[in-house]
């Protein structure tokens, strides 16, 4: 990305659904080709994305008006996180990051790091203490991003039929 690209972070709308679903399908295929079991069991599916949008959980990062990255941000609600094999850094309010996916045209351009910057800004603006996120053990790209963005490994959670590595970053 160059300094000339116009980058925006906004809530997803129902008009974005088909573009988001295309991105999710590309990410599912990328995970499969990488040999990962993550997202290979029918989740996330179109219904997941429609639910995210209807509940105002869906967010997109756009580059020059094109949707490049999708994520779901959920405040204070992830039942699986109450049973961590380990310990969270905090027990205050938090934003959960789920379903991070990048369009193939924008893959490898550092946009997930920009996305996490935007999520941190969003979290601060809401007066929320921390961000919690989990990922599959074999999602090397996401593990590297979380490390580079200063997230602390807190333990393991059981989510979507498997054990996930759980991370947290204190924001305020």
TrEMBL record:
It comes from the Bacteria. SUPFAM superfamilies: Acyl-CoA N-acyltransferases (Nat). InterPro entries: Acyl_CoA_acyltransferase, GNAT_dom. Residues 7-172 form the N-acetyltransferase domain. This is Acetyltransferase (GNAT) family protein. It comes from Chryseobacterium taihuense.
């Amino acid at each position: 990305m160059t300094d000339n690209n116009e980058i925006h972070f906004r809530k997803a709308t129902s008009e974005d659904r088909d573009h988001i679903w295309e991105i999710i399908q590309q990410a599912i295929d990328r995970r499969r080709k990488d040999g990962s079991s993550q997202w290979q069991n029918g989740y996330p599916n179109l219904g997941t994305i429609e639910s995210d949008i209807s509940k105002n959980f869906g967010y997109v990062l756009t580059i020059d008006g094109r949707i490049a990255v999708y994520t779901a941000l959920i405040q204070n609600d992830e039942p699986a996180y109450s049973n961590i094999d380990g310990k969270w850094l905090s027990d205050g309010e938090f934003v959960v990051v789920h379903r991070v996916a990048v369009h193939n045209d924008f893959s490898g351009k550092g946009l997930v790091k920009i996305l996490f910057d935007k999520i941190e800004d969003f979290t601060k603006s809401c007066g929320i203490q921390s961000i919690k996120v989990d990922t599959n053990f074999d999602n090397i790209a996401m593990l590297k991003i979380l490390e580079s963005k200063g997230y602390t490994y807190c333990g393991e959670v059981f989510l979507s039929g498997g054990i996930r590595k759980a991370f947290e970053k204190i924001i305020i």
